[in-house]
Amino acid sequence: MLQQIILRHFKCFEQLRLPLAPLTLLSGLNASGKSTVIQSLALLHQTMTENPGSPGLVLNGKDVTLGSADEIVDKISGRDSFTIKIEHSEGTIHWRMQVEANELIAPFAAIQWETEDTRGQLSHEDTRTFLSKPGLPIGLVETLQSLTYISADRIGPRETYQASSSTQQTGVGARGEYTPWFIDTYEDLLIPGAMCHPGATPMLKRQVEAWLDAFFPGSGFEIERLPRTNLLVMRLRTSSATNYHRPVNVGYGLSHVLPVITACLGAVGLAQRDSQVAPLVMIENPELHLHPAGQSAMGVFLARAAATGAQVIIETHSDHILNGIRRAVKGVEGEPILQPDHVAIHFFQSRDDSGKRPQLISPVIDAQGNLDTWPPDFFDQYEKDVGSLIGW
Q: Consecutive 10-residue runs of the chain (392 residues): their mean pLDDT?
């Protein structure tokens, strides 16, 4: 499991040390650095999977498209390099990238790694062979390679959906574009009991249906492969008393929550089937197009995924997601789902050039779901608005 991310001179950070937990929530004002954390992991994932022999970090791929190397270095510090360091329970890997103007990759200046038993380093000339080197913290490498990432830019309702032809595609895609294909391909994947909805058999497709119904009572879906094409059609319904409809006629909520449900269930199911390391799932704005009760339920659902063995990192602006996680820690129907020390909550503030204001504040949650600090602008807009309305 990932334990910490350390960034130096990457985008808006001169230096960031970010502790991680089985469930990590990233919050804060717009343009304060939340997406930068997500992108650091997405860059490593797309480099290792799309071009594992690349001499540098692949900046433009299926997960993220960030432009050229000089666009992602910390402009204030004026450095010509940046680093990403990941600490894992099995060891550490430290990537240092050079910055060259207009280059669409960030060349590796050096890669260092360390485990309990070994240390290693590669200079720029040898980094193409990095993944074949002995002594690497394999658990960390496999975690990054198998990462499931869902961006905020999800595709929404479509007439047809693509099937994946890649043998490396084991997720729903960064935009959720492969969700129908994934459900159809892995419909009989066994889901671990702790993640199973009690109202359905423990197979992926039935579990996705059951959890979707939990968010939208009476909802359902059907998926059909179009003969002699690389396409699938998905139909949705919002009531068990109605027929299935084109996704565009149902509303955006179902289309946006379906990839999140599928990704979490699929990640824990594949990890169990293949005896893999704890799967890593990153989701931006899991609350998209969900009503408040659904957002709170999503917080509980994500806590359940973390309790089942996945490592979940989310970026959110939703106080309902936060409160759902707090409920999961205190107990849903009397039973705690996740231990408080398995939750990390981080609040990012805009960079202060004077250095007097920290960029990161990390409230600690206790067993009752209480937080030990509530900094200004941290999910407090409701109180501000109500106070204004009643004249506080």
A: 96 94 96 93 95 92 94 83 96 94 90 92 83 89 94 93 80 95 96 93 98 95 95 92 88 92 96 87 96 96 96 97 97 91 95 70 96 91 88 75
Amino acid at 302: L
| CA 255 – CA 109 distance, rounded (Å) | 42
Count the Cβ atoms, other than its own, within 10 Å of residue 268. 24
* Structural domains of the chain ordered from first start: 2-146+277-390 (3.40.50), 155-262 (no CATH)
Q: At what angle do helices 204-215 and 252-274 cross, to 10 degrees?
A: 140
Cβ proximity of 262 and 209 under 8 Å: no
CA distance 89 to 212: 34
CA atoms in the 13 A half-sphere facing the CB of 322: 22
Count of CA atoms in the C-beta half-sphere (13 A) of 263: 32
- Token digits for 317? 């602006």
Long-range contacts of 238-242 (CB under 8 A, 24+ apart): none
| pLDDT for residue 382 | 86
Burial grade of 117 (CB within 10 A; 0-12, 13-18, 19 or more) = exposed
Strand order in the sheet with 220-225: 161-162, 231-237, 220-225
Decide the pairing of beta strands 161-162 and 231-237.
Answer: antiparallel
For residues 108 and 131, what is the distance between their CA atoms, to the nearest angstrom? Answer: 13
Q: Using CA atoms, how far apart are residues 306 and 286, in angstroms rounded to an integer?
A: 15
Distance CA 374, CA 63 (A): 33
- Which tokens belong to 127? 């980094």
